[in-house]
Amino acid sequence: MKIEKNTVVTLRYKVMEASGKLLEDGKEPSAYLHGGYGNTFAKVEEALEGQAAGYRVTLSLAPADAFGERDESLVQTIPKTEFPPGVKVGGQLEGRGPDGQTHLFTVVKIKGPVVHLDGNHPMAGKALRLDVAVTQVRAATEEEIAHGHAHGAHGHHH
Length: 158
Ligand code: ZN
What we know:
Blueprint: E1 7-17, E2 22-24, E3 30-33, H1 42-48, E4 56-61, E5 75-79, E6 92-96, E7 102-111, E8 114-118, E9 128-139, H2 142-147
Antiparallel strand pairs: 1-2, 1-3, 1-9, 4-9, 5-8, 6-7, 7-8
The protein binds zinc ion (ZN).
């Protein structure tokens, strides 16, 4: 079966930074609903379109094609007094960015009375290399198409 709109693709993918640093070892397969549902990077869908199980490809993604460019306006400082006690470096909290959107902020530094936050995705601004191996392709169920994601062993669980 070929990969086309409304097929569920099971794949293993290794993710590396451009430097070669391994981010995801690809041991756990994952499944996604193909066809522009936003379940994987558009460049991945583009590369897999029309392919079948057994296909392997290595993709280099620019930051804009992966987790986006860094947005320095999402780097903020906030008085420690505005935080619940126990705020730690590496902790995460939801907050509103200057764009009015909700972002997940990571505490990057606490210096004296000031907490430094970064609302960028940890992988923002990074170019990635993906080694993708397609292990299975099947037709999506009507329910999966209605939900816009894959179900089953390696898909979405409700
Ligand atoms: Zn669902």
